[in-house]
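Note to self: keep these together.
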Amino acid sequence: QVQLVESGGGLVQAGGSLRLSCAASGRTFSSYAMGWFRQAPGKDREFVGQINWSAGNTNYADSVKGRFTISRETAKRTAYLQMNNLKPEDTAVYYCAARSTFVVRWDYWGQGTQVTVSS
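Structure:
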């Protein structure tokens, strides 16, 4: 099993920044990815971005491209989501997730952290 714990959410004004962290523990895969998702009230969970843990390459949803950056610190087994120029529509519960790169399904999820952007 993999355990994921997010932190760093909070309340911020529009145009501000926040950095979320996702610390992983438990089993490791030979090759895996960590992703960020979010779910706003009344909406489906949506993909924000992901990082290939070994290669470090990333990809993002169009809605956050250029504003959000995913990075990782391998020694700490921690992924980060740096969010800049936040907008009220970024308000959501943010989740990190992990999967082996050999599968498509995200098997492991954190508990989520609330991000609220005020206008």
